[in-house]
Structures are given as structure tokens and as C-alpha cells.
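User:
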Amino acid sequence: MTPEMIDKARENARKGNYRNVEFRLGEIENLPVADNTVDLLISNCVINLAPNKKRVFEEAFRVLKPGGRLLISDIVLLKKLPETIKKSRTAYVGCVSGATMKNEYLALLKDAGFQEVSIIEEAHFPAETIIAEAAAEGVGSSKTFNAEEIASSIASVKVCGVKPK
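Assistant: Predicted structure:
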């Protein structure tokens, strides 16, 4: 997040008369929050951009209170991507090339200590445009992969987990 995004979030909270929320500038791998102080953590399509997802989930576990909940909306892989897509800047900023295999993603959450880890929703992620742009930027060519096949390798998931009491 940027300072401008924090300002916007605070403005929206003020407009909505939300008084039990707080916004802080920090890094997802090193949250500026004390241990065991957060009731609920929400993440929307950002963990796929973090290079150290293990650290992200450990940090989430650290700051949540016992019984606290984690709700994530993110992009995961159903099968591995070709190197041409993994190296694409367009695919990275489009939340594709930084994604992790779905089973690995869930395992990282469990390894961090979360219980009741489950996918509450899974849907197709419309990656066709991103993949076409990645090919156009010269990282790969449409002859080296099938865009529809790659798109079927990517899913949008909503995942929840609980820190044990």
C-alpha cells in the first residue's frame, strides 16, 4: 500500500462511519502490528505478488488473536505455467506469474498454524488478456503455448482459516 491508499481508506471509513477499523502502512511480510491483537485479516489479490508467501502466512498467524480469522481472495495455479509466462512482467502485475500451486498455497497456511483451512469459493480467472499481452511483449510467442490452456491453469479462490484458541 502507499500513503495515498491509506489516506483513501481512512476517508472511506470516515464516510462510512466505521470506527472499529485501523489502517497502517507496512509490509505484508513484516506487519506493523503487535502479536495476538487482530480479530480478522482480509487480503484481496495481493499474496500472489509476495515472493515469500510462507513468511506472509506466518506473519498473519502472529498478529491474529487466538480464534482470529483469515479471509483471502487470491490467484492460485491448478498446474504449472510455462517459463515464458512466469518471466512476464505483464503476467506478474496481472497477478498470474507470482501465483503458487493451489495445494502448496493451502499447505503453507496449515504449516503456519492455521486450522479449518478451506476454499469457500473457486472460479475461473479471466487470464486470457494478460496471457495475450505477455506474448505480445516478446517474452513468449503464441506458438510456444496455448493461451486457453494456460488460462485453464489459473483459478481465483477465496480461502479461510482460523488461528486456534
